[in-house]
Write a structure and sequence with these properties.
Distance between the termini: 17 Å
Number of helices: 17
Shape: elongated
CATH architecture of the largest domain: 3-Layer(aba) Sandwich
CATH class of the largest domain: Alpha Beta
Number of strands: 22
Helix content: 25-40%
CATH superfamily of the largest domain: NAD(P)-binding Rossmann-like Domain
């Protein structure tokens, strides 16, 4: 059955057609996003939800989203999606950060010009029949210092455009390396240095706990007298009341805001003040940008629902279509390793440690780690998936660590998983053979070569004669057919293990019979999701 997607906000017909052309069953209801009760009523029928800003995806909506796998926002901001609830539900949240980069950057530059030359007020005055040429004395951008807070995708474009205007560009961004700054032609500075030197300050960061109120009253008071502030990023980054006060005192010469702490902004302390330019969140409001993000959201959702490729996800590692093809067997292996140890572990887990060797270490480790953790967590909660597993693990206080290394042995690559509890450590390793099938290659430090099946039986014992016969005879007596039988031991007469791949679940009667033989220290039936 084809995946089914609901488009609950306005999206271009071209974007809707992309879904259809890719074989997605798309339901275009552009007004249903405004009716939260109706959306809650029908959301359970869909695998995907495509939205803009009108649809509010709340925890209540998600409670009814029994089939939902992905929510994609045509645009950057996802404030209208409860991402924590979505992650717990195992739903991927995507956005489209690149479709409106140029449009937003251009708007910031336009706002800078507008506030530098007081264009809106001068236009209104002229429309009113006045000719107040001497009133609107502006300032040039050439040779002025532009302070850019956030030099990522959009901020980087602003830096480039500003350099073209012959401005001196300084940037504050903790993630901006010196080499990249040199390549961009900007000076990398600390925030206090930027505040003290900039003639114009423009913000291009998301709203996070780290960036919230980054231009606080205290920081605004550190700015150069006569500074002009431009915010086309997110409301909540700037103390708007403090800006208003500093405008009135003359410390700030002008401000241009496209975004506000409360939107829709029908009232704000900045409204009505001289040389303040305000627009109603128009950063991405161009025909080109709206079309670009709509097409991008359709492609991203289709790729995920049809191939497993993940692009621009906010709560899961991205996996390209090419990576999905190569990594498919490794992701299955990671899940199987987690499922094995998860089924073997009854006590609370304190830590999960994962070693990636050789070929495995060159892959998308974040995705492999999510798959491993999901395999473990599913044994407790079958609804957990790669999206929700890290959230569940964090809620339980489980520490997750990873290590990667170059090829160190006979295998081109392998994954070794170790789980730590208060009582013990459990570890096992696995690899992908040339046939593309996952194999367990080590359990408790004992080397094996075990094919993985849906139904398996794991036993431990002392290495002594009669074990194989007892296992075979007991399985036969209870009509359990053995597809594959793998043995391993630490040394002659030492600890030994056996892993049986069987055609059907091992009945309790067979387990009881094995226990009665007195041979086995541990007997554990296992189940794995195959396919």
């Amino acid at each position: 059955m084809a995946p089914k997607v609901l488009v609950s906000d306005k999206l271009s017909e071209t974007a809707v057609q992309i879904f259809r052309d890719r074989g997605i069953d798309v339901d275009f209801q552009p007004d249903v996003g405004k009716d939260k009760d109706r959306l809650a009523e029908i959301i359970g029928d869909y695998d995907g939800l495509a939205i803009r800003s009108a649809t509010k995806v709340t925890e209540k909506i998600l409670e009814n989203a029994h089939k939902l796998k992905v929510i994609a926002r045509a645009g950057i901001g996802t404030d209208n999606i409860d991402k924590v609830a979505a992650s717990k539900k195992g739903v991927i949240v995507m956005n489209t950060p690149f479709g409106n980069m140029i449009t937003t950057a251009e708007h910031a530059i336009a706002m800078m010009f507008a506030v530098a030359r007081q264009i809106p007020e001068a236009s209104a005055s002229t429309h009113a029949g006045k000719w107040e040429k001497s009133r609107f004395m502006g300032t040039e951008l050439t040779a002025k210092t532009l302070g850019v807070i956030g030099a990522g995708n959009i901020g980087g474009i602003v830096c480039d455009r500003a350099r073209g205007l012959k401005m001196k560009v300084i940037a504050y961004d903790p993630f901006l390396g010196q080499e990249k700054a040199d390549k961009m032609g900007v000076e990398k500075v600390e925030l206090d240095d930027l505040l003290a030197r900039a003639d114009f300050i423009t913000l291009h960061v998301p709203l996070t706990d780290q960036t919230r109120n980054i231009l606080s009253r205290e920081n605004l008071e550190k700015t150069k007298k006569g500074v002009r502030i431009i915010n086309c990023a997110r409301g909540g980054l700037v103390d708007e009341e403090a800006v208003a006060d500093l405008l009135k005192s003359g410390h700030i010469a002008g401000a241009a805001f496209d975004v506000f702490a409360n939107e829709p902004a029908t009232e704000n302390p900045l409204f009505g003040l001289p040389n303040v330019v305000c627009t109603p969140h128009l950063g991405a409001a161009t025909t080109e940008a709206q079309e670009n993000v709509a097409l991008q959201v359709a492609e991203q959702m289709s790729d995920y629902l049809l191939t497993g490729a993940v692009s621009n996800a906010l709560n899961m590692p991205s996996v390209t279509a090419e990576e999905a093809k190569v990594m498919g067997p490794w992701i299955k292996l990671a899940g199987h390793l987690g499922a094995f140890i998860g089924q073997m572990t009854d006590e609370p887990i304190k830590a999960i440690n994962i070693l990636y060797d050789g070929a495995a270490s060159q892959m998308n480790l974040a995705a492999l780690t999510s798959a491993t953790v999901a395999g473990i967590m599913k044994t407790v909660n079958p609804e957990v998936n790669m999206v929700s597993a890290p959230v569940v693990a964090k809620e339980r206080g489980i520490k997750i660590s990873t290590t990667h290394q170059d090829k160190s042995g006979a295998f081109e690559g392998y994954i070794k998983l170790t789980v730590v509890t208060d009582k013990r450590e459990r570890s096992m390793g696995g690899t992908i053979f040339s046939d593309g099938k996952p194999r367990f290659i080590q359990i408790k430090g004992i080397n094996i070569d075990a094919e993985i099946g849906e139904h398996m039986l794991y036993v431990t014992n002392r290495d002594e004669p009669g074990i194989i016969g007892a296992l075979g005879a007991t399985m036969g007596a209870h009509d359990v057919n053995i597809a594959n039988f793998t043995l391993g031991r630490s040394n002659a007469g030492g600890e030994a293990i056996a892993l049986l791949y069987v055609d059907a679940p091992v009945p309790q009667a067979a387990i009881d019979a094995l226990q009665k033989t007195g041979y086995f220290r541990q007997i554990k039936p296992l189940h794995f999701e195959i396919g």
